[in-house]
Amino acid sequence: MKRFDVVVVGGGIAGAAAAVSAARLGASTCLLEKNCVLGGLATAGNVVVYLPICDGEGNQVIGGIAEELLRMAATGAEGCVPEAWLAGGSARERAGTRFSTSFNAQSYLLVLEACLLEAGVDIWYDTRFCDVVMEQDRITDVVVYNKSGRIQIPASMVVDASGDADVCHSCQENTVSLATNVRSNWFFYRDETGVHRVGLTEPFTPDGSLSGEVQRGFRGDDGWEVSSHIIASHQLVRDRFNQIQQASPLASLVNLPSMPSMRMTRRLAGNTVLSEESSGITPDDLVGLCPSWRQAGVVYGIPYSTLTGARTANLITAGRCISASGRVWDLARAIPVCALTGEVAGTAAALCASGGVDDIRNLPHEVLCAHLRQQGNILDPSWIRGL
Q1: What is the Cα–Cα distance from 319 to 72, expressed in whole angstroms?
Q2: Could you tell me whether strands 315-317 and 299-303 are parallel, antiparallel, or unpaired per DSSP bridges?
Q3: Residue ranges of the alpha helices (H) in 356-386?
Q4: Phi then psi for 290, rounded to 5 degrees?
Q5: What three-state secondary structure class fits 190?
Q6: Are 14 and 69 in contact (CB under 8 A)?
Q7: How far is CA 237 from CA 12, 90, 188, 244, 361, in A?
């Protein structure tokens, strides 16, 4: 097995963005995905809403690959870029329209794959992360299992975009797990009037606690708990679809998620934690902005140190694996910030691999930011505003 400059674990939006950004900088890049499609919950989970990359007051606060992926999603009959955010849109119009879109999951997973292949990424589908091989504080190999058996993939830098901080856990980084994931299943059905989407979920609390209306929550880092969540969520669909068929006997199911529809499972607990207490604060190691899609005008500054661990020199996280807690973890798991942190992680990993930086935590901040700005990212701290 050849050595890769960058190995990305997880092919959701965060992992796809990390792999593309690393490969575009010339790094030999391998992406490992346990499913047979890219996009994670956005595609295999039918969560077909690309949440806003603006602050809700007319200011775009996320650019780069996140904007590129949004525009790629906004094609066909299912989605489009809001007119206010096209060339010539006025500030007043943008203040009243969020820069977001919806999309067709099946089309989007093919577009994502084409994007990665064009960048030169080696995509390994049907390949499950198992473990890491460590030498002191470094990952030397990523251990996976697929139809070829158990394989060790040598890696210079590793991006944990697994969604469940699986690599962090294997490296014995400190992690936080929640047992509060509720039954959820976004599905499509067809009747005589067309195809309809149902965003089916039990009451969800954004801070990660369990609502009093829900009988039990589920863990995302335990095999039986995951299976139980899937089975319970399928029952939720049966119950709802029976109601639909009573009103429309000709209705038929079109598409169910092919992965667990969990929101917040396990994440890194790093030396820096992005939380509600970070509101209005500009970090010294700012690498991007996290807008609230729940509340207009709230924007968090993302510190680079929320992506890196305390123990492992060549590991960086992306997406919902980053060190963020409570309601901000809920924001960081959404597609735009997954894409943003994925680009940051992939860029940093590629720069370290090419520049001989052994410890990704020591990558000069000004070097990383220069590349991020060149790639169209927005690092304007004036947009950071608190509650």
Answers
A1: 19
A2: unpaired
A3: 365-374
A4: -120, 100
A5: strand
A6: no
A7: 24, 43, 10, 10, 45
Nearest CA to 338 out of 327, 322, 316 is that of: 322
CA neighbours within 13 Å on the CB side: how many for 291?
Answer: 28
Place of tokens 């295999």: 44
Ranges 73-77, 91-95, 142-146, 166-170: which has the least confidence: 73-77
Amino acid at 296: A
Distance in angstroms (rounded) separating the CA atoms of residues 23 and 6: 9
Location of structure tokens 């006025």: 90
Write out the E strands in 217-357: 252-255, 266-268, 286-291, 299-303, 315-317
Could you give all domains of the chain from N- to C-terminal order, each with its CATH number? 4-177+266-383 (3.50.50.60), 184-255 (no CATH)
298: tokens are: 């709230």
Q: Which residues, at least 6 apart from 350, have a Cβ–Cβ distance to it below 8 Å? A: 5, 6, 21, 22, 23, 25, 26, 27, 29, 157
Closest CA to 169 of 30, 312, 318: 312
pTM: 0.97
Which amino acid is residue 90, in one-letter code?
Answer: S
User: Hey, which residues does 156 pair with through a beta bridge?
Assistant: none
Amino acid (one-letter) located at 183: R
Taking the C-alpha atoms of residue 185 and residue 17, their distance in angstroms, rounded to an integer, is 25
What is the mean predicted confidence (pLDDT) over 32-39?
A: 98
Rounded Cα–Cα distance for residues 86 and 94 (Å): 10
- Give tens-digit pLDDT for 194-212: 999 999 999 999 999 998 8
Three-state secondary structure call for residue 150: strand
How far is the first Cα of the chain from the last one, in angstroms, to the nearest whole number? 50
3-class DSSP state of 210: coil
Contact 315, 367 (CB under 8 A): no
pLDDT digits (tens, 9 = 90+) for 69-119: 999 998 765 678 999 999 888 989 999 999 999 999 999 999 999 999 999
For the cut 80, the answer to whether the pLDDT of residue 387 exceeds it is no
